[in-house]
Amino acid sequence: MGAPGHAPSAGPDGAAVRPPRMVAFGGGHGLAAALAAWRRITPDLTAVVTVADDGGSSGRIRREMPVLPPGDLRMALTALAGDDADTRRMAALLQHRLGGSGVLAGHPVGNLVLTGLVEMHGGDTVRALDDVCRLLGARGRVLPMADVPLDLVAQVESTDPDDPARARTIRGQVAIATTPGRVREILLSPADPPVHPDVLDAIATADVVSLGPGSWYTSVLPHLLVPRLRDALAASRARVVVVLNLEPQPGETDGFSPEEHLFVLQSHLGGVALHTVIADEASVVDRRGLLSAVRECGAELVLAPVAEDRGVPRHDPVRLAGALREALRSVVAARQGMEIGERVPQPLVPGPVREGDEGNAAHGAW
User: Fold this and answer.
1) What is the helix, strand, coil percentage profile of the chain, to 5?
2) How many CA atoms lie within 13 A of 8 on its CB side?
3) 7 touches 18 (CB < 8 A)
4) How many other C-beta atoms lie within 10 A of the C-beta of residue 366?
């Protein structure tokens, strides 16, 4: 489902061309950042969202109702909302958290709206999401990564210096994200959940698939743990783009370098091929090490200034869109008749790091 009213543009020979078909995997603020960038490039955009959240409003709702946790789905929907004043106002309403101290306190309005629509549609989450997409004039579509709520189960290293080899079994997204110690292994329960056919169709017809940024163990990797998703990605002809985080996440990836994030991701890929890795140039200390890790994955590295300038660890959507266009160049070369959309000034988008240019990165620390 593309943007309402979008029509293909004409190529140099006057023939109609289509925009790239894009699928973005993730959850929470990381996926919202990716969608804010991708929507500047294509209206043919599908967000596939994690459904393992068990904290806050989403946790309360999934414990009380037979529905998927709505929070990450809501954030993806509002990230794709149209640009006119009415739809932006509606997006702000869906994001608004109710105040007070009663039973509704802390619930975002959008979580309740989604839950109500799912109930109205007899439990059909995808119909409810499509309804909200139309309500928001969304530039794309939002789908859940599985048709049932998921639980994350992790083996976390002990922080006891006298028994460092001992691991603890931690269950639940919030508990995993806040438990000290490195994650050794992450699993899903159920291990082989059902996946909506529309998700598999989106992957099969995609030109580009993106993973990240976001909470590595609880928002990014879970997609690769779903057998049907991983198999669909392995069979797809889409280019796979990974957007690395700007810094480690406290409690989940403490002390991780960009290379370690990539190694962990690679260990979960199965038969999925990586093609491009995007990293913020100021966040990389060991450029040579990252380039080596990227090459080991068989991918190319795009280093670009993709962070905001305000000193907060947040991706700038315009700059990230520029780096994503760099990643799309190989797609355009391989498949004629695709448009790339609006341009970003070239200084924002340095080319891929190439052999002989692996020296020290720009100032900044991971």
Assistant:
1) 40, 15, 45
2) 12
3) no
4) 23
Q: Is the distance from CB of 54 to CB of 46 less than 8 angstroms?
A: no
Nearest Cα neighbor of 43 from 78, 2, 8 is 2
Can you name the residues that pair with 157 across neighbouring β-strands? 167
Q: By the 8 A CB rule, do 208 and 327 touch? A: yes
Read off the pLDDT of residues 224-272 as tens digits, 9 standing for 90 and up: 999 999 999 999 999 999 999 999 988 788 889 999 999 999 999 999 9
Residue at 104: amino acid letter: L
pTM (global) more than 0.90: no
Neighbour count for residue 334 (Cβ, 10 Å): 11
| Confidence (pLDDT) at 154 | 95
Confidence of residue 15 (pLDDT cuts 50, 70, 90): low
Average pLDDT over residues 78-87: 95
Could you tell me the residue ranges of all domains in the chain?
Answer: 17-49+193-360, 51-144, 151-189
Region 85-106: mean pLDDT is 95
Lookup: tokens for 255: 């002390």
Structure tokens at 352: 């891929």
DSSP letters spanning 198-249: HHHHHHHT-SEEEE-SS-IIIIITHHHHSHHHHHHHHH---EEEEE--SSPP
